[in-house]
Amino acid sequence: MRKITLITGGCRSGKSAYALSQAMRHAAPRAFLATCPRMDDEMAARIERHQKEREADQWHTVEEETNLSKALTALESYPVIVLDCLTLWINNLLYHQGTLALPEERMAELTEEFVTKCETQSGHLIVVTNETGLGITPTNDLARHFRDLVGRCNQIFASRADQVVLMVSGIPVTIKAP
Q1: What phi, psi does 149 have (nearest 5°)?
Q2: What angle do CA 6, 9, 100 make, to 5 degrees?
Q3: What EC numbers are recorded for this enzyme (predicted)?
Q4: What is the Cα–Cα distance from 52 to 20, expressed in whole angstroms?
Q5: The CATH number of the domain where 162 resides is what?
Q6: pLDDT digits (tens, 9 = 90+) for 17-45
Q7: Annotated binding residues, as ranges?
């Protein structure tokens, strides 16, 4: 049976740890779909550390920055998949298409296409994203555009997810239940 859980919250709120703990409730094999680019040495070291931690718990990791539907197809035999995270996916799309060249309407289309793909999967898909709209309005157009793209993506995903959890200071708060 297919289930989509969206986990959102601020930076360092415990989203990824919670997603992993929920996935660990399922027997192996488990898959982790990572969207984080290896931007610099610190990020590469962080990615390596996280991969080693997951390997000990029998995770299969796939790194994909932009084509999440293709990556999800390759992982369709896994009963549980953690996708971490939508926010970096949007960052990557912006980077590859050029700062403001990704209109909000196109982001909505890409999100709809990907959510539709997610709904065809069997098993449990746990998706991590950042809640970027709780702070002050950014002072530059690129930051505002990024915030708007993430907000649009999150709204679409949340509307179609079976469950939505908001992480606050490491505490999960269910805001939509199955």
Answers
A1: -65, -45
A2: 90
A3: 2.7.1.156, 2.7.7.62
A4: 14
A5: 3.40.50.300
A6: 999 999 999 888 999 999 977 677 887 77
A7: 9-16, 63, 84
The rounded mean pLDDT for the chain is 91
Q: Which residues are catalytic?
A: 50
Range of the domain at 13: 3-176
For residue 86, what are its two tokens? 């939508």
CA dist 122 and 125 (Å) reads 8
pTM of the complete model beyond 0.90: yes
CA–CA separation, 99 and 24 (whole Å): 37
Q: Domain total for the chain? A: 1
Per residue in 136-167, pLDDT (tens digit) is 889 999 899 999 999 999 999 999 999 999 99
Residue 49, token pair as written in the block: 């550390």
Show binding-site residues for GTP.
Answer: 9-16, 63, 84
Per DSSP, the three-state class of 96 is helix
Residue 172, class by beta-carbon neighbours within 10 Å (0-12 exposed, 13-18 middle, 19+ buried)? Answer: middle
Alpha-carbon gap, residue 58 to 133, rounded angstroms: 35
User: What's the CA gap between 109 and 129, in Å, rounded?
Assistant: 18
Distances 172 to 88, 135, 151, 155 between C-alpha atoms, Å: 21, 20, 20, 19
